[in-house]
Design goal:
single chain, 77% helix, globular, 423 residues, disordered C terminus, mainly alpha
């Protein structure tokens, strides 16, 4: 069976399967932890800004260390970096469980409790900044180039399976067993994921001439700025994460707008992942990069429409369906972006490009989350979501109209190139 028509082509490579198991465990653990912390903090404080601060506290150390993480991923053994960086995340759920227990027993005051919770999130941001570039730049060394699209589709699919199951498990476990069991499951998953990444066979990576870190990162920045297909695709994708941060506000929608409680929050939080799961299966045999720019425009415009309509919904069922659509469109842009970032740069730049991409996407997500919570604080949650969704639509339309010539552009024209002009 040819790799182009083989649904399981990437998973037939043992080490890619192990990395995918690591990814699934990490996604489940982090999202269980995220839902537990966000819902519990809002229950304790009733302050939307507490939700935005979760992302902001994780963002700052992630940005500070990601450039360094990308640098060392290209110059040192990225498998070792990933193995140790991931292992050090394992104690974080246990620390959070201890903090919630002490607060419930009134052994620590609220300010100290909040400081401890945000401190754990800060440490998670530090570790993600170190190991994320190594994780993202390791994948191209585990499968042949001809199945990169299939591998990235599986990566998106596995992430969304975790993103679908994680919130559902968190909602069920919080409702039935409490936050301590939920955080214990997160700890167990992180340990399994750490074992999976440790089993990946050793790889040889291309030698890169040693340069000062700033000069080395400038090469990756220059490539991303001057390659038009990467630059405008990432800008489109960034518009969705900056102005489409609905997930941050879901605890408020569940609690105050839809009146659905913790179980409803788990359902809503899982809906985008269900949409991505369905879309990813539909696209498993189709290479989205064949018409990359057209597909990016469709994805971002569809995302914005779903966000605006969600803000107007007062039905749990309709809101659930709209979030499924939002997740489906988001998966399209994610698969295209990840494939472009592995196909177009030369392999000696992969770690640094992965670091820059991680900074852009994660900072966009976290700044978008803070922006959404701030707008919700100022204008209430529905107007805030309408404004953000409308901004996403307008930016996508403006970029699409200004870069119409990319509709006719082929991927091979942009490989390893620095396109500085547009004709």
């Amino acid at each position: 069976m040819s790799s182009s028509s083989d649904f399981f082509a990437a998973l037939r490579y043992r080490d890619f399967s192990l990395l995918s198991l690591n990814q699934l465990c990490l996604t489940l653990a982090i999202l269980i932890q995220e839902v537990v912390v966000a819902y519990s903090l809002y229950q304790i404080t009733k302050n939307p800004l507490m939700l935005g601060l979760i992302g902001l506290v994780e963002l700052v150390p992630f940005i500070v260390l990601s450039l360094w993480g990308g640098y060392i991923a290209d110059y040192f053994n990225r498998q070792t970096i990933l193995k140790w960086g991931f292992a050090l995340t394992c104690p974080i759920p246990a620390c959070l469980a201890l903090l919630f227990f002490l607060h419930a027993q009134q052994s620590i005051e609220l300010p100290l409790f909040l400081l401890g919770v945000y401190g754990c999130i800060f440490v998670l941001g530090l570790l993600r900044g170190i190991y994320s570039p190594s994780f993202n730049s390791l994948r191209p060394f585990l499968v042949p180039e001809k199945i990169y699209s299939n591998a990235n589709t599986w990566t998106a699919l596995i992430w969304q399976i975790g993103a679908m199951l994680g919130p559902l498990l968190a909602g069920v476990m919080m409702g039935q067993f409490g936050i301590y069991i939920a955080l214990s499951i997160a700890l167990l998953l992180l340990c399994v994921g750490s074992g999976a990444v440790a089993m990946i066979g050793p790889r040889c990576f291309p030698a890169v001439a040693r340069q000062p870190m700033i000069q080395s990162m400038q090469q990756a920045i220059q490539f991303m700025l001057n390659n038009r297909m990467i630059f405008w695709s990432m800008l489109l994708d960034l518009s969705t994460v900056l102005f489409g941060a609905l997930l941050t506000l879901l605890p408020i929608f569940a609690e105050e707008i839809l009146k659905s409680g913790a179980s409803g929050l788990g359902l809503l939080r899982a809906a985008p992942a269900i949409g991505t799961l369905c879309m990813t299966f539909a696209l498993m045999r189709y290479d989205l990069t064949q018409h990359a720019w057209r597909n990016m425009l469709v994805a971002t415009l569809g995302f914005g429409l779903c966000a605006v309509t969600f803000a107007c919904s007062r039905s749990l069922v309709l809101s659930f369906v709209l979030l499924i659509g939002l997740g489906a469109f988001d998966s399209m842009s994610m698969i295209i972006r990840q494939t472009l970032l592995q196909l177009l740069p030369c392999k000696s730049l992969l770690g640094r490009v992965a670091a820059l991409n991680g900074i852009i996407v994660t900072s966009g997500n976290q700044i978008g989350a803070f922006q959404a919570s701030l707008f919700a604080r100022l204008w209430t949650v529905v107007p805030a979501t309408l404004v953000s969704g409308g901004a996403c639509l307008m930016i996508s339309l403006a970029i699409g109209l200004s870069q119409r010539d990319l509709l006719k552009s082929k991927i091979k024209q942009h490989k390893h190139t620095f396109l500085t002009s547009h004709k």
